[in-house]
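Dear H.,

Thanks for agreeing to be a second pair of eyes. The structure we're designing against is below in token form, covering all 450 positions.
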């Protein structure tokens, strides 16, 4: 461990790109840790207020809203981050046109998704979510789809601008307002109150991210002529669609397995157990996930500028940093699984197996996460889409055919799917790193002698 930490310090000291990463990551990680810590505390309190089956219904409702909002974004958030990072200093006029396309598509997708939930709340509740009790909560929480989708787009532009401080502060401000709102409404009105609070929380987030983005648009002079934005529509097929498939499959896959569980005996209780396990899965992914938001614009800028050596260095640095964070966290959480679960109430004391499987799966994913970021930075989106589609098909298929009776079974399917995902991701990394090495060697031979 000491040798690894020394290697990490040396990498930061010797690499300008690593120092750039570390500076931006500090704000990203700080914001994520504080905001996520507040959210975790909030969900523990809500678990103690609601009965176990109602808490499971809330988890399924949250998962549904997140999945719908990801699909409603039509891949525009990925386009916004990638091209903001690549073009903000090189081609600001084209960037303005691309962002004009992105916001129009985001608004279109999010409004259609929200109206669809409002119009078909009854069949969604009874046919898809397997509970007539969720009809009113679906209606009350439907506006959150619009707010979540717009918030994701706005923060994606901020990430592309490397404005991580504003992302962190706007997220924290929204979370601080959400805490009393959720507790009050849940205590007073139960599941319906919690559903209303989901819409309020999403509104807080989109409001603060809008104010932050408005400030940055002026500072970076992004308010340029966008009359010819239709000329950028080719990005919808070349980047947005594969980005939607790649990034939009994760949430819907988790939602699908929860929907499968909901139709089984004691289903909502098992969803509550699975939801808690996945909350701590996300705890491990907090820092690596937010670090990847910093890596993407820097790596994109590096690859766009043909800095192959710097790109390879940053990739290795990111993998090492993630491993040093995620693996010790997974071990510690596994050792104290019983004590952590007691925070949610006595009814969760016997849920240690899915909890431990989930946190070790998160450690695996954290270590290979930077490779997925490299795919996005290198515009290899169809490759990323195909690998994620294979993972989602394997995960959902295993749950449906073999492991769909309990939260423990779902987490077993999850770790199996991610083991296979790790294998084919590493194979891609080997090929791509070899290409980078060859490009670096070619650049060196072409450089003039001094």
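And this is the sequence the design step returned. I haven't edited it by hand at all.
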């Amino acid at each position: 461990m000491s040798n690894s930490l020394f290697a990490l310090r040396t990498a930061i000291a010797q690499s300008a790109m690593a120092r750039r990463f570390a500076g931006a990551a500090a704000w990203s990680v700080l914001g994520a840790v504080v905001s996520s810590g507040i959210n975790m505390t909030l969900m523990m309190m809500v678990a103690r207020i609601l009965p176990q089956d109602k808490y499971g219904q809330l988890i399924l409702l949250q998962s549904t809203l997140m999945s719908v909002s990801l699909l409603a974004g039509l891949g525009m958030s990925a386009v916004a981050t990638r091209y903001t990072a690549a073009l903000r200093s090189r081609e600001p006029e084209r960037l303005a046109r691309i962002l004009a396309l992105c916001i129009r598509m985001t608004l279109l997708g999010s409004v259609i998704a929200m109206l669809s939930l409002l119009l078909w709340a009854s069949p969604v509740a009874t046919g898809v979510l397997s509970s007539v009790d969720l009809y009113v909560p679906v209606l009350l929480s439907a506006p959150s789809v619009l707010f979540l989708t717009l918030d994701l787009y706005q923060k994606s532009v901020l990430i592309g601008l490397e404005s991580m401080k504003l992302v962190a502060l706007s997220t924290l401000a929204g979370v601080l307002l959400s805490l009393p709102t959720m507790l009050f409404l849940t205590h007073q009105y139960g599941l319906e109150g919690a559903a209303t609070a989901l819409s309020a929380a999403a509104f807080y987030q989109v409001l603060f991210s809008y104010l932050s983005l408005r400030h940055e648009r002026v500072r970076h002079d992004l308010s340029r002529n966008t009359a010819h934005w239709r000329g950028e529509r080719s990005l919808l097929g070349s980047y947005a669609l594969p980005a939607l498939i790649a990034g939009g499959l994760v949430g819907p896959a988790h939602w699908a397995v929860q929907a499968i569980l909901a139709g089984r005996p004691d289903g909502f209780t098992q969803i509550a157990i699975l939801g808690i396990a996945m909350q701590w899965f996300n705890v491990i992914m907090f820092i690596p996930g937010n670090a990847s938001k910093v890596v993407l614009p820097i790596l994109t800028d590096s690859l766009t500028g043909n800095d192959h050596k710097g790109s390879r260095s940053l990739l290795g640095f990111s993998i090492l940093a993630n491993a040093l964070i995620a693996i010790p966290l997974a071990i510690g959480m596994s050792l104290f699984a019983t004590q952590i679960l007691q925070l949610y109430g006595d009814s969760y004391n016997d849920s240690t197996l899915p909890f431990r499987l989930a946190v070790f799966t998160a450690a695996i994913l954290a270590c290979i996460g930077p490779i997925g970021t490299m795919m996005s930075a290198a515009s290899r989106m169809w490759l990323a889409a195909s690998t994620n589609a294979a993972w989602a098909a394997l995960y959902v298929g295993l749950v449906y055919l073999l492991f769909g009776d309990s939260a423990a079974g779902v987490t077993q399917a999850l770790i199996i799917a991610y083991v296979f995902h790790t294998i084919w991701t590493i194979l891609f990394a080997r090929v791509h790193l070899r290409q980078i090495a060859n490009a670096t060697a070619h650049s060196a031979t072409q450089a003039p002698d001094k």
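Two observations from my side: The chain has two domains: 1-45+249-445, 50-233. Residues 1-45+249-445 form one domain.

Warmly,
E.
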